[in-house]
Amino acid sequence: MSDAKRAVVLASGGMDSATAAAVAQERGYDLYLLHTSYGQRTEDKEYECATAQAEYFDAADFLHLTTDHLSKIGNSSLTDEEMDVEEADLESDEVPTSYVPFRNANLLAMATSYAEANDCDAVFIGAHSEDFSGYPDCRPAFFDAFQTVVDVGTKDATEISIEAPFVEWSKTDIAEKGTELDVPYEYTWSCYRDDEPACGTCDACAFRLQAFQNIGVRDPIEYAERPDYAEE
């Protein structure tokens, strides 16, 4: 049995959480990857990517949970076929239709349960600064508050740190760090709309393509379109 520290990583299958896994590993943690399917449009592709990441990082454990209550609650274009996924708008400060109400609290609660059950020391989430401009459950204050919930709501002997290492970073910063750490971005998925190829024109594709274009690296996944989103 390894004496290394242990961390649960919320592994969505996307590039941010894959980079968070690499950062956790770089910090000396054994990885316990937690992936959830909640009725999102691309859940099969995301599960495939998360599974490939678990193998790549030689995770100590991989847990896949079905959390379909989030799609049953609805009111998100990620889970509701009646709502359209919006075209990319990189300048908007509005809460986008892709926001899944209070999703990160649900995910962090499950991750904390998983962490406490396996004597883990930390929970890593890949949320970043461009997320919290639109998603209220990605704000630094939210993670601070959730840390208090974890401290109060677990056993006295349990010490679990909520780690959001990219909360002040841009997507470009994440792509740069991940490239440095050889994150297998070919095993990641960001598109909100499609399983393959990625659309290239939803918010998630746009932020991702922009990040790779900003650092001069070609995104290794397939796109139906690759518009130029690079910052001038």
UniProtKB/TrEMBL annotation:
Residues involved in Zn(2+) binding: C191, C199, C202, C205
Key words, A-Z: ATP-binding, Ligase, Metal-binding, Nucleotide-binding, Zinc
Catalytically driven reaction(s): 7-carboxy-7-carbaguanine + NH4(+) + 2 ATP = 7-cyano-7-carbaguanine + 2 AMP + 2 diphosphate + 2 H(+)
Cofactors, names only: Zn(2+)
Enzyme class: ligase
Signal sequence annotation: none
Descriptive protein name: 7-cyano-7-deazaguanine synthase
Organism: Halarchaeum salinum
Source species taxonomy: Archaea, Methanobacteriati, Methanobacteriota, Stenosarchaea group, Halobacteria
